[in-house]
Amino acid sequence: MVNKRSHCKTKLDVNIRTRFQFYLKNMAQEKQPVDEELPCNAYLDASLQEDENMQRILKTFYSSIEVLEADMEKALALQAERTLTTNEQIKLDSYLVYLKSTLFWIYLKLQGLDVSKHGVMHDLSRTKELLARDKEINDALAAPRLDMQAAKRFIAAGTHTRFVDMDGVMVTEKQYNKSLQETTKE
C-alpha cells in the first residue's frame, strides 16, 4: 500500500519555478511534426495555419497547458482529501496560488494587456516571497543540529586528559612522561 502522505510530500517538494521553466523550455525546443488540427486554427490567418513553426509552437503550448491542468486537478484532489500536514497544506496552497496567478498572467499576456501594473503581479510577488520564506524555514529545520548531550559527554571524557607541548608537538601527559623515561634510560 502506498503511503499517501509520503507520496504527497514528494509531489509538493517540486520546485515550482523549475517546473514552469521546464514547461516553457519544452514549448521553445519541441520539434514534433504537427499532425492534428489545433482548436485555435479557426482564429488564425491562413498563412499562420500553414506555418509549421507556428503550429509546432501552438501544439507545444496546448500540450503544456494540458499538463498544467492535470497537475492542478491532482493538487485540487489532494486539497480535497484533507490528509496533509500543516506544512504540506501550506506548500500545496502556495503552489495553487502561484499556478492560478501564473495562468491568469499568461491569459492577460495572450490578450495583449500590459501586466506590469496589473494586480496579478502583486499576487505573484507575494507568492514568490511566501515560497522563499517556506524554503528558508524548511532549510533551517533540515540543517544539522548539535547534539548537546553527546557534546557534553565528549567534553567530559576529554577533560581528564592533559596535554603537554613537547618540542612543538602536543602530546598527552602520559606520552610525555613515557618519552622522558625512555630518554633518561639511554
TrEMBL record:
Biological process, per Gene Ontology: maturation of 5.8S rRNA; regulation of gene expression
Spell out the InterPro entries in the cross-references: Exosome-assoc_fac/DNA_repair, Sas10/Utp3/C1D
Cellular location(s)? Cytoplasm; Nucleus, Nucleolus; Nucleus
List the keywords (alphabetical): Cytoplasm, DNA-binding, Nucleus, RNA-binding, rRNA processing
Q: Cite a GO CC annotation.
A: cytoplasm
List GO molecular-function terms, semicolon-separated: DNA binding; RNA binding
**Major location category of this protein:** cytoplasm
Its assembly, as annotated, is: Monomer and homodimer.
State what this protein does. Answer: Plays a role in the recruitment of the exosome to pre-rRNA to mediate the 3'-5' end processing of the 5.8S rRNA.
Q: Which family does it belong to?
A: Belongs to the C1D family.
Please report the name of this protein according to its UniProt entry: Nuclear nucleic acid-binding protein C1D
